[in-house]
């Protein structure tokens, strides 16, 4: 077993001290820095030559106010002394003037006079009457203050029980400070004693070869310190992207690899593009205030070309030329002009589709959306959504299933199934459900389907469109092993440092 210089010095001091010594004693006797002794102690503990122990002690000392009271006396005693000098009964004003107590201290002194049953105040008459004939002997609180005045610092454990009982009272009065100190000590083990009994020879170590040692040849005689090259170093926390941002970039890369183009759209959207263009009726529950954030100022925005608006309005009212009966109500321009924080990025893709009517179109969007949700461990008012569309000649629902499966496969999720579902703007529609092996559960990830004629015809689109909207934050919770979605936005430095790169 190889021991370093400071470890040998520490063992030698322990042997001379009867096998046990405090860290401070070792620092003094071995003439070492405190940090050097602690490093030696940890190393000796790992080698089973010594064991480290610690003991916590509570110490008391006077505050500035406490020192003031030890010189002049407790305010209640000074007030009693003045009252007795005035014959045991006098007006409060007379007693205060006689005692020379500061006006701010007077209520405190009166309160403690009453608690200690030394005097009684007649509030109506404003007179103070002593309940004792002479000044009582010093109480336990005064004795403790006097002791602290003499000894400066006192260990609570060394105090008599009666003085210990008044510590909390004096602390509340802010007359004493309570400080906890931890004392560490080192004790030889049986193996440590065997080594000490064989004799400790401290040899000075050299940690660095200098030109002088090499030229003079002294390097042959000195003891070179060995370094543990496999010992763990201090943790380093280099700058990196937020885990959520890493996942967002990964999703973008996946879609780009699959031949898609990324698009972006406005966060503030008209109800027309957010709801009406997607054949969502104006009386749909999701459009109410409890699900959607509406802007207070400005309240309304511009609608697109009159021709497009008229087609959408007729489709809602009677189905227009789509073969549908529509929703059978009177469509309102004012409702369609209202401004909202977009509730889904489908508003972005439908805007894009309205301007790009020629196939092929393969676009995606990874962006923020806003919903008036109740905040809890799995819901936020602000969330991210993965949106995409494919518009081309002859594309089918089977192509949509294949695209979503390939997307999740590239993220390392192999098991994906699809359940029939309903959305106002797609038919057929389905939910994508994935299997999470580490949780051993199936989890819904988002909706998908083919845009209905009521969505496409008013915009002049003549080819089938595959569309999907997948929940990103739920995916992030699974991939980052979180049970509370709020941690993604709390800026918890410990979690950010512990979380490795996502790939």
What does this structure look like?
By secondary structure, the protein is α+β, with helices and mostly antiparallel strands. It has two domains: 64-174, Orthogonal Bundle (Arc Repressor Mutant, subunit A); 245-498, Bira Bifunctional Protein, Domain 2 (BirA Bifunctional Protein, domain 2, 2-Layer Sandwich), CATH 3.30.930.10. The protein has 21 helices and 18 strands. A seven-stranded mixed β-sheet has the order 10-13-14-18-17-16-15, with helices on both faces. A four-stranded antiparallel β-sheet has the order 1-7-2-6. A three-stranded antiparallel β-sheet has the order 3-5-4. Strand 8 (205-206), helix 12 and strand 9 form a beta-alpha-beta unit. Helix 4 packs across helix 8, helix 5 packs across helix 6 (92-99) and helix 5 packs across helix 7 (106-115). The protein is flat. The mean pLDDT is 89.
Brief synopsis:
This protein is an alpha+beta fold and about 500 residues long. The protein has helices at about 5-15, 25-30, 35-45, 65-70, 75-85, 90-100, 105-115, 140-150, 160-165, 165-170, 190-200, 210-215, 245-255, 270-275, 305-320, 335, 345-355, 395-410, 455, 470-480, 495-500, and strands at about 20, 50-60, 90, 120, 125-130, 155, 175-190, 205, 225, 260, 270, 340, 360-370, 380-390, 415-425, 425-435, 440-450, 465-470. It is built from 21 helices and 18 strands.
Using the alpha-carbon principal axes, give the shape: flat
Rg computed from alpha carbons, rounded to a whole number of angstroms: 40 Å
CATH evolutionary superfamily of the largest domain: Bira Bifunctional Protein, Domain 2
Q: Could you describe the largest sheet, including whether it forms a barrel?
A: 7 strands, mixed
Terminal Cα separation, in Å? 42 Å
Task: Average the pLDDT over all residues and give the rounded result.
Answer: 89
- Quick one: how many beta strands? 18
How many helices? The count is 21
Class from helix and strand fractions: alpha+beta
The share of residues in extended strands comes to 15-25%
- The CATH topology of the largest domain corresponds to BirA Bifunctional Protein, domain 2
The count of domains is: 2
CATH class of the largest domain: Alpha Beta
Looking at the overall shape, the CATH architecture of the largest domain is 2-Layer Sandwich
Bin the helical content: 25-40%
What are the segments in which pLDDT stays under 50 over at least 5 consecutive residues?
none
Physical arrangement of strands within the biggest beta sheet? 10-13-14-18-17-16-15
């Amino acid at each position: 077993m190889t021991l370093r210089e400071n470890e040998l010095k520490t063992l030698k001091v322990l042997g001379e001290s009867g096998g046990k010594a405090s860290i401070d004693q070792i620092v003094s006797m071995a003439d070492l820095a405190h940090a050097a002794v602690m490093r030696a102690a940890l190393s000796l503990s790992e080698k089973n030559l010594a064991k480290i122990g610690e003991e916590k002690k509570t110490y008391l000392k006077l505050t500035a106010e406490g020192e003031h009271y030890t010189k002049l006396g407790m305010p209640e005693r000074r007030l009693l002394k003045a009252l007795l000098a005035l014959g045991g009964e006098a007006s409060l004003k007379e007693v205060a003037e006689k005692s020379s107590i500061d006006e701010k201290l007077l209520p405190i002194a009166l309160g403690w006079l009453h608690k200690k049953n030394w005097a009684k105040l007649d509030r109506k008459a404003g007179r103070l009457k002593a309940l004792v004939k002479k000044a009582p002997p010093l109480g336990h609180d005064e004795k403790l203050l006097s002791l602290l005045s003499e000894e400066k610092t006192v260990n609570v454990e060394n105090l008599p029980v009666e003085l210990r009982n008044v510590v909390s009272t004096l602390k509340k009065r802010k007359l004493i400070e309570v400080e906890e100190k931890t004392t560490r000590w080192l004790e030889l083990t049986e193996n440590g004693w065997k080594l000490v009994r064989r004799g400790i020879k401290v040899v000075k170590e050299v940690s660095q070869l200098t030109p002088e040692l090499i030229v003079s040849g002294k390097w042959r005689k000195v003891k070179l310190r060995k370094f543990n090259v496999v010992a763990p170093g201090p943790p380093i926390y280099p700058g990196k992207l937020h885990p959520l941002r890493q996942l967002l970039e990964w999703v973008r890369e996946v879609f780009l690899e699959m031949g898609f183009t990324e698009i972006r759209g406005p966060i503030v959207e008209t109800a027309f593009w957010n709801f009406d263009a997607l054949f969502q009726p104006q009386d749909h529950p999701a459009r109410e205030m409890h699900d959607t954030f509406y802007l207070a100022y400005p309240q309304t925005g511009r609608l697109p070309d009159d021709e497009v608006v008229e087609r959408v309005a007729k489709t809602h009212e009677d189905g227009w030329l789509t073969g549908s009966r529509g929703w059978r109500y009177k469509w309102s321009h004012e409702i369609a002009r209202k401004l909202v924080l977009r509730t889904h990025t489908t508003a972005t893709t439908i805007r894009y589709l309205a301007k790009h009517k020629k196939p092929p179109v393969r676009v995606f969007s990874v962006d923020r959306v806003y919903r008036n949700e109740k905040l809890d461990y799995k819901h936020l008012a602000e969330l991210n959504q993965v949106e995409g569309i494919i518009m081309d000649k002859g594309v089918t629902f089977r192509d949509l299933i294949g695209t979503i499966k390939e997307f999740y496969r590239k993220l390392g999720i192999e098991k994906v199934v699809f359940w029939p579902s309903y959305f106002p703007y797609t038919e057929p529609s389905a939910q994508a459900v994935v299997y999470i092996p580490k949780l051993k559960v199936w989890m819904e990830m988002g909706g998908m389907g083919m845009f209905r004629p009521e969505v496409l015809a008013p915009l002049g689109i003549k080819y089938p469109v595959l569309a999907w909207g997948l929940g990103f934050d739920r995916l992030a919770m699974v991939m980052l092993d979180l049970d509370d979605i709020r941690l993604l936005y709390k800026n918890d430095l410990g979690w950010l440092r512990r979380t490795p790169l996502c790939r």
